[in-house]
Write a structure and sequence with these properties.
Layout: E1 3-4, E2 13-14, E3 20-21, E4 46-47, E5 55-60, H1 79-86, E6 89-95, H2 100-109, H3 142-148, E7 152-159, E8 184-189, E9 200-202, E10 205-207, H4 218-236, E11 242-247, H5 259-266, H6 275-289, H7 314-347, E12 354-360, H8 377-381, H9 388-391, H10 409-415, H11 429-432, E13 433-439, E14 449-451, E15 455-456, H12 460-468, E16 475-476, E17 479-480, E18 506-511, E19 514-519, E20 522-526, E21 549-553, H13 569-585, H14 596-599, E22 612-615, E23 619-622, E24 634-643, E25 650-657, E26 660-667, E27 670-677, E28 681-686, E29 694-704, E30 724-730, E31 733-740, E32 754-756, E33 778-787, H15 793-809
Parallel strand pairs: 2-4, 3-16, 5-11, 5-12, 6-14, 6-15, 7-8, 7-11
Antiparallel strand pairs: 1-2, 6-13, 8-9, 9-10, 12-13, 16-17, 18-19, 19-20, 20-21, 22-33, 23-32, 24-29, 24-33, 25-26, 25-32, 26-27, 27-28, 29-30, 30-31
Helix pairs in contact: 4-7, 5-7, 6-10
Length: 810
């Protein structure tokens, strides 16, 4: 321990050995007599990090593959990342998990994503230790470790590591950033967010800084708040080091850049050439920069998956260019704002002793818009592909608040150059190979150098700990800690170690049944058997064994293009055995190849086991993961209200928003129930007359024609999204009846909440009202009754027979 000042004085500081967090309180060393005059006060020393511990700025962007940033040969300008690379090092061999929150759990814990409970995203969580989306208490985050060692810790932007079933104001908050060691949080909870009207929190309180500011955008708003935070810390306590995790929503859908940035990118005409030639251009840029070997091979364009650019119609090309220009603008805009944060560190005079780790992407570029792209990502998650002709309706507003947009997968393939496949594909480098720039002027002198050692995102935590001189704790809050599973790459900071062999020798990969194993340059991987947009079919029942195995020697095959499995059958067997051992060690079993099925599977949120919900008071902000789930069910919603003299209007109940959801409201005094079907169609029940003053009972009753989530036990999704008939009643009298030919099978808009008495963020029907649309009637009682279909013995027999027929036909 290092002590400064006079021990016992108010200004004394000390480092700690860090074995136990929080550090034990030191024994009082003053003197206590009967009176204060003859007693001697004594203050415990303030805990500080080791003397030379750097500030840490940890940056991670979203859904961006190897070929996105200019720093690694991309055509999208990323000067902030360029700056870090030119002032430090480029890394071309760091890996993710192939999906966002699993990567982020690994990033903040230094453990593999299954070890940290994040085998998949929380919205797909299941009741197994590797998949429950709960970071266990024996895996303290880097935020908690640095906090207890004297750092100021903060988290800005995306938080996709709070379980979807613990994201409400009921908590618990131990899995929120502030409960995991980050003193200050400014960001959104969930996988994606509308950047114009985000589901935004400061610590655990929802905030609305965008209200009344139509030009406000979270990318800038977040940078502003981070800069304000850093200056506040610096002015209050200049010698206190900071650890700031900076995680913008870019470039995850929706792609929401400002108009200024769209215009800047459009003027460059970067994408008029189409995706085939873009890919070739990026590939040549990468070789010129030296960030890939000169003998790297570029595989032929996958025409069985995606069309060649020249085979598209003129309308398709026009739409897809618009899609990608907005994506590129989002990436460039985000990098610019990251640059402002970096500049703020320099303006404070702290850049020299700040370790900046800038990771491009938490997985490969997303293809979740499918081959066509989409104006509404929620459509993808409900299994709907929007035809190009229909998408053109949004052409002029693409990327604005009117869209929840995603580009065509053709561009995604190009942005993963020189690799193949996408986000979600854990067996292909296009899904798991990221790149990174690192600077620390006080330590890294090999400016502009390239590092090619194999690394994984779990290596970041041990690197930060080694750089700061802080050890991983053995105990936190009395709980013995699981070992850190990553390997520090701090050795690569020194020029003398530029070509040293990687210290990270072995690494498994697994995501939704696709898997791989890296070992000392060899990569065993499963052949891709599902594109990311193919999420609704029957899952591979045996993802460990029902696979075509491929083998690559990455020492001589940088782009994973030469499958040599047939030449090395013994190596294939050996590495599969190694994968199984790693999978057992890190909680990968039971492996599950299902995708969409897991989204609607039950999990322990605050509605679990309940079929009736009663509300008597206005309330907003209940997230989708903690609110009553009405999809694939029959339900009745009853509102008892008092209408004042002069009539009433406003929202009674809504869930979701502009891009998918429902609303029960009074419009010019008339009762309305409306379903917004992914912004493509709206079905409306409306009473003919305005309600008279006085008490009224409004009821919407929906009868669902399907077997619902019960079919999922049979891996059969035919019971989801089925038709149903809705009936609107006023004081017991039927006033409107409509049949829905289909319903939403999977989700409403994830970043919009369940609101009573008003509507937050976006509305479900812009033509009828604008939020907040507060209810002017008095709400006495709101009751929801959900009747989830139950499988009868006859239903079970039919499903079992159908499954037998399907297997026979296969």
């Amino acid at each position: 321990m290092e002590i400064t000042g006079i021990l016992g004085s108010p200004s004394a500081t000390t480092t700690i050995n860090g074995n136990q967090l929080p550090a034990p309180e030191p024994k009082f060393a003053g003197v206590i007599n009967n009176d204060a005059l003859t007693s001697k006060p004594w203050w415990a020393p303030r805990i500080v990090p080791p003397k030379q511990a750097p500030n840490v700025l940890l940056i991670i962007t979203d859904d961006a593959g190897f070929g996105v940033p200019s720093t690694f040969g991309g055509v999208i300008p990323t000067p902030a990342m360029d700056r870090i690379a030119n002032n430090g090092l480029r890394y071309n061999n760091i890996h993710s998990t192939a999906l966002c929150s699993p990567t982020r759990a690994a990033l903040i814990t230094g453990r593999n994503h299954h070890s940290a409970g994040f085998g998949v995203i929380s919205e797909q969580s299941t009741g197994f230790p590797g998949y429950n989306s709960i970071i266990a208490e024996d895996k303290a985050t880097i935020g908690r470790i640095l906090l207890d060692n004297g750092y100021a810790t903060s988290w800005f932007g995306k938080d996709h590591n709070t379980p979807a079933f613990a994201a409400s104001q009921v908590g618990p908050f131990n899995q929120w950033p502030t409960g995991m060691g980050f003193e200050y949080f400014y960001g959104f909870v969930g996988g994606d967010s509308n950047q114009w009207q985000p589901n935004l929190f400061r610590n655990t309180t929802q905030i609305y800084p965008f209200e009344g500011k139509p030009e406000w955008n979270l990318i800038t708003g977040m940078a502003d708040d981070a800069i304000d935070y850093l200056n506040r810390i610096n002015q209050t306590m200049p010698d206190k080091p900071f650890f700031l995790k900076y995680a913008p929503g870019a470039t995850h859908a929706p792609h929401h850049p400002t108009k200024e940035w769209v215009e800047k990118i459009s003027k460059l005409h970067l994408f008029d050439q189409g995706w085939n030639k873009l890919r070739e251009q990026i590939f040549e840029n990468q070789k010129k920069l030296g960030v890939i070997p000169q003998d790297t091979q570029l595989e032929v364009w996958p025409t069985s998956v995606l069309k060649n650019w020249d085979d598209l119609t003129a309308e398709e090309q026009k739409l897809y260019i618009k899609q990608v220009e907005v994506f590129a603008a989002f990436a460039a805009y985000s990098d610019h704002e990251i640059g402002r944060v970096i500049q703020a560190v320099e303006d404070m005079g702290k850049l020299d002793n700040t370790l900046i780790i800038y990771i491009n992407g938490d997985n490969g570029t997303s293809a979740e818009g499918g081959p066509l792209g989409t104006p509404n990502e929620v459509a993808f998650f409900n299994g709907v592909a929007v035809p190009v002709a229909d998408q053109m309706k949004w052409y002029d507003v693409w990327g604005t608040e009117q869209t929840y947009n995603h580009m065509s997968a053709g561009w995604s393939w190009a942005f993963d150059t020189p690799f193949t496949w996408f986000k979600q594909n854990a067996s292909k480098l296009g899904g798991i190979r990221q790149n990174m720039a690192v600077s620390w002027p006080a330590r890294i002198k090999d400016k502009g150098g390239l590092r090619e050692q194999f690394m994984h995102i779990i290596d970041v935590v041990p690197t930060i700990l080694e750089a700061s001189g802080i050890k991983a704790p053995e105990m936190v809050d009395g709980i013995k800690q699981a070992p850190i599973e990553g390997t520090s790459f701090a050795y690569t900071f020194d020029a003398k170690n530029a070509k040293e062999a990687s210290k990270h020798k072995t690494q498994y990969f697994e995501m939704m049944g696709q898997w791989a194993l890296y070992h000392e340059g060899w990569l065993l991987s499963t052949k891709v058997n599902r594109a990311p947009w193919e999420a609704f079919g029957a899952a591979n029942p045996d993802p460990l064994n029902n696979q075509v195995l491929e083998l690559y020697d990455l020492n001589t095959d940088f782009s994973q293009s030469k499958n040599i499995a047939d030449q090395h059958p013994d190596k294939v067997k050996q590495m599969k055995k190694m994968f199984i051992a790693e999978a057992k060690k890190y909680q990968v079993f039971p492996m599950d190849a299902s995708v969409a099925v897991r989204v609607v599977a039950p999990r322990p949120n605050i509605t679990a086991g309940r079929s009736e919900f009663v509300y008597t008071y206005p309330m907003v902000g209940l997230p989708q993961g903690d609110s009553p789930f009405l999809l694939n069910s029959s339900y009745t919603i009853t509102a008892d209200i008092d209408v004042p003299e002069g009539g009433a209007e406003g929202m009674i109940l809504t869930s979701g928003g502009r891009f998918a959801g429902y609303g029960f409201y009074l419009l010019k005094g008339k009762p309305v129930f409306l379903w917004n079907l992914i912004d493509l169609k709206r079905i409306k029940w409306e009473g003919p007359d305005a309600l008279t003053p006085g008490k009224h009972s409004l009821e919407f009753d929906f009868k669902y024609d399907g077997l619902g989530v019960g079919t999922l036990a049979f891996n059969n999704m035919s019971g989801l999204g089925r038709p149903g008939t809705g009936t609107l009643k006023v004081d017991g009298k039927v006033v409107a009846t409509e049949t829905m030919p289909h319903t939403l099978p999977m989700i409403l808009q994830w970043d919009e909440s369940f609101d009573i008495g008003s509507d937050t963020l976006t509305g479900v029907n812009d033509a009828d009202y604008k939020p907040p649309f507060a209810l002017t009637a008095k709400l006495n009682k709101l009751t929801l009754k959900v009747d989830r279909p139950q499988l009868s013995p006859e239903d079970i027999k039919k499903l079992e027979a159908a499954m037998r027929d399907n297997k026979a036909s296969e």
